[in-house]
Amino acid sequence: MSWELFWTLCELQAVVVFLVDLSGGVESLKGAVGRWLGVKGPITLKPFDCSLCSFHWAGLIYLVASGQFSLPGYMVVCLLALATGTTGRLISAILDLFNRLLSVRW
Known about the structure:
Elements: H1 3-22, H2 25-37, H3 51-65, H4 71-82, H5 84-103
């Protein structure tokens, strides 16, 4: 496994965490699908409901599509999938830091 592949998987993980956990896009999509189907109450769109599931499948598809599928590569995908919660908290902390820096009066 190359550093380039590892870095690409890390970038993919950050994008998936942002889209699934932080942007609210999945909740909007679930609401639209629920209205379209006429469903009352909450619905689930597995595997798009959680960033762990979404990244696991996106990483697996990326490994296969790029022709770099291997056991160490799959292990890295699984470990990065487990770390999606930590990545979400890290992105939120960075955003909080930026907000604090921008709100400082000079």
